[in-house]
Amino acid sequence: MALKRKLVPQSVYRRQLATRLRELREASGLTLTEVSEQIEVNQGSLSRIETGERGTTPVLVRALLDCYAVTDTELRDDILDLVRADKEQQKPWWRKYSTVLTPTRYDGYLALEAGAVALANYQPLLVPGLLQTEDYARAVIAQMRPDLGADQVDALVKVRMERQESRLSGERPAELRAVLDEGVLHRVIGSPGVMRQQFERLAQVGEQPNVTIQLLPFALGAHPGLYGPFVILTFPQPTAPLVWLENPNNSVYLESQSDVQNYTDTFDQLRASALSPAETLTRLIRTAEELEP
Q1: What is the CATH architecture assignment of 95-290?
Q2: pTM (whole model) above 0.85
Q3: What is the sign, positive or negative, of the torsion defined by CA atoms of 54, 90, 237, 5?
Q4: Are 122 and 243 spatial neighbours (Cβ–Cβ below 8 Å)?
Q5: In degrees rounded to 5, what are phi and psi of residue 243?
Q6: Does the domain formed by 8-88 have CATH 3.30.43.10?
Q7: Residue 53 DSSP one-character state
Q8: pLDDT in tens, 157-169
Q9: Which residue from 128, 125, 112, 114 is spatially nearest to 255, judged by alpha carbons?
Q10: Comparing 255 with 32, which gets the higher pLDDT?
């Protein structure tokens, strides 16, 4: 059965910590019930720590390591470093936008994206958020979220722009591989002028060494991507990759190995069927020139 969870805010460090603690407990041969009894901590709390749904403290982690008979000083220090690193990420840059992010758990995705080293994004309908211009983003958000006021729309646009600055530039930018359906070029968002600027932006960003953009032509016909958009996030080892699926109310992620592999295979098929990055760049420039300024 596919493991499908609601998205909760998790740093990559918390996910690493959760995996390490679960592996150490299993290696010790103890069940959660037995650990709960030995260290006198609620079993439900321990379970949520092992799934990354909640953080923990150095004191509790030391107790767990003692319970699991972990005496290696270097291993203990590494795990405690993960606890500290997770704590440091509990005040991220997007926290000031929590009133507009929390209702749809988008803060959960931002926490994961912040720790990713690579993102594979398939989008059949819109330009991915990490590649949108400010005007395109504003038009998309305003039309897709008519329930939001102007101030809330502005806040979400700022989030999108800060995401781009955080993940696509700087000392350690993420690798972004984006596959877009050709329909993205023909769906006018905002105005022809907005679209022209957006295509120019795609052409510009697509020349960055960490960004690859490819178009799926209409001529391809039916393909596996018709099921809908998705993002595959890859993290530093030993954290396993996951798939993020967005919906209007509560986005979810898939983390089972079979699910991630299925989406990875689909993405690879889409990339193989798409125009090359060079062909895509030519198409973007030509399409931009055909639109009015």
Answers
A1: 2-Layer Sandwich (3.30)
A2: no
A3: positive
A4: no
A5: -115, 135
A6: no
A7: S
A8: 999 999 999 999 9
A9: 112
A10: 32
